[in-house]
Write a structure and sequence with these properties.
The complex is a heterodimer of chains A (about 120) and B (about 110).
Chain A lengths: L2 E4 L3 E3 L5 E8 L6 E8 L6 E7 L4 E4 L7 E6 L4 E6 L8 E9 L8 E2 L3 E5 L2
Parallel strand pairs in A: 2-11
Antiparallel strand pairs in A: 1-3, 3-8, 4-5, 4-9, 5-6, 7-8, 9-10, 9-11
Chain B lengths: L3 E4 L2 E4 L5 E7 L7 E6 L6 E5 L3 E2 L7 E6 L2 E6 L8 E7 L7 E2 L3 E5 L1
Parallel strand pairs in B: 2-11
Antiparallel strand pairs in B: 1-3, 3-8, 4-5, 4-9, 5-6, 7-8, 9-10, 9-11
Classes of the chains: A mainly beta (about 120), B mainly beta (about 110).
């Protein structure tokens, strides 16, 4: 069955970086984009960007250009989201989710979420 | 960027009644809209995609409809397990993929 399993909770100080992983299984890795969506405490869902596992090409939301880096490891079917220059406003749950790479498609499977806390 | 506006922000409904949630797009997205349910402490889960198609496992009491840029999620015969926040998402014009701000459904 399709699974996206994320790494555990992280605590960082302001100015630091964090790297969250999303290990996938149960489907053809190259056939689905992996997206990152974040949710600040009590807030809605915010799309951060995606990576196309076929070639490793990322696409970032304008807000996160320069601070986020998305990569993938095809040997382990794992996608990574690296966020630098952390501020308290980056405290959130970060989700990975997948969508097919063809046509107009929604996010059909999501990871369980990773809480990142930024605090001095 | 397409903006999705959901209403109301909170909906309080008695068990067995019907909840009607709205999502308005700032421009045409065709039928390329999904609805997600997010229960407390859980990841979002797709309920409806292509505006009207139920995802696998979505109970029959959930239905989606649309006209122009107005989309509706209807939950009939509301049950306690339907207590959640519901988000709409457009995937017609991307990037970015955009979400509405959510509607919280409370069970009276």
């Amino acid at each position: 069955q399709v699974q996206l399993v994320q790494s555990g909770a992280e605590v960082r100080k302001p100015g630091a970086s964090v790297k969250v992983s999303c290990q996938t299984s149960g489907y053809t890795f190259n056939d689905y984009y992996v997206h990152w969506v974040r949710q600040a405490p009590g807030q809605g869902l915010e799309w951060m960007g995606l990576i196309n596992p076929d070639g490793g090409i990322p696409s970032y939301a304008q807000k996160f250009q320069g601070t986020v880096t998305m990569t993938r490891d095809t040997s382990t079917r794992t996608v990574y989201m690296d966020l630098s220059g952390l501020r308290s406003e980056d405290t959130a749950i970060y989700y990975c989710a997948r969508s097919a790479t063809y046509g107009y498609v929604h996010f059909d499977y999501w990871g369980q979420g990773t809480l990142v806390t930024v605090s001095s | 960027e397409i903006v999705l506006t959901q209403s109301p922000a909170t909906l309080s409904v008695s068990p067995g009644e019907t909840a009607t949630l709205s999502c308005r797009a700032s421009q045409s997205v065709g039928s390329h809209l999904a609805w997600y349910q997010q229960r407390v402490g859980q990841a979002p889960k797709v309920l409806i995609y292509s505006a009207t198609t139920k995802a696998t496992g979505t109970p029959d009491r959930f239905s989606g409809s649309w006209s122009g840029t107005e989309f509706t999620l209807t939950i009939s015969s509301l049950q306690s397990e339907d207590s959640a926040v519901y988000y709409c998402q457009q995937y017609r014009n991307w990037p970015p993929w955009t979400f509405g701000q959510g509607t919280k459904v409370e069970i009276k």
